[in-house]
Amino acid sequence: MVEVVPLEDLPDALRFREAESGETATERRVLRAVGYWRSHRADAPRLPDPASLVQPCWHSESLDEIVAYLKSGRRFIAWFGESYCRFGCWDGVLELDDGPDEEAAWKEALDRYGEPADMGSCDLYDGEWVWPEGLAHYVERHAVRLPEEFVEDMRSRSWTVPELPEEPDVEAEGEDEGEDEDEVPQGVYYVEDYSFWISWAEREAGRSS
Q1: Residues 195 and 126 grouped into a single domain
Q2: What does the alpha-carbon distance between residue 126 and residue 103 come to, in Å, rounded to a whole number?
Q3: Is the pTM of this model over 0.85?
Q4: Which of 73, 97, 144, 193 is spaced 20 to 30 Å from 202 by Cα?
């Protein structure tokens, strides 16, 4: 379930921020993050490698519904630049300069991986969970499995993402003082929690069933 923090329990920095309409923030919602992968950055959290969570035929009877749900999430926040596939789909191909080897490289990549994967450039959410736009690619093409708690929540909604606002207010660390009042978050604040995903992935890594 989504954690709801009463107004009186919010940090002082988040309390009583009045919007132009006169409304005041009333709650802070924590979204459970899922489907985020490690990078080469030294300061990156200990996120999992998707290769450790591969399980062929995982939820084969409802895979289409799972993939469709992931693709239909509401946009949570947009990022600069697109993500990339950690399995190497199209690695080194999209960056090729024009030259005699370009056509051959594109043909080889098409034969090996199919059409280029659109990994997206934003996070999606459903009110309780938040995930990267490219997560559906890992599940559909690379048989990466997800927490059963997430799947059960999808099923409980009949595989339909609820109506939610696009790009809601997100709690940001270290907000600059004196920022434009029009840009100050208002109403409900959302924050991503990676602890469930990290602990689940560490426990489940390498299991085949």
Answers
A1: yes
A2: 41
A3: no
A4: 73
> How many Å apart are CA 199 and CA 197, to the nearest integer?
6
Between CA 20 and CA 32 the distance in angstroms is 30
Determine contact, residues 201/53, Cβ cutoff 8 Å. Answer: yes
The per-residue pLDDT for range 15-35, each reduced to its tens digit, is: 333 333 334 445 778 899 999
**61 by DSSP, 3-state: which?**
coil
Say if residue 194 is in the same domain as residue 143: yes
Residues of the domain holding 89: 84-118
How large is the C-alpha radius of gyration of the chain?
20
Which tens digit of pLDDT belongs to each residue from 56-97?
999 999 999 999 999 999 999 888 777 888 887 765 455 545
CB 117, CB 137: distance < 8 Å: yes
For residues 52 and 183, give the distance between their C-alpha atoms in angstroms, rounded to a whole number. 40
Contact call for residues 153 and 129 (beta carbons, < 8 A): yes
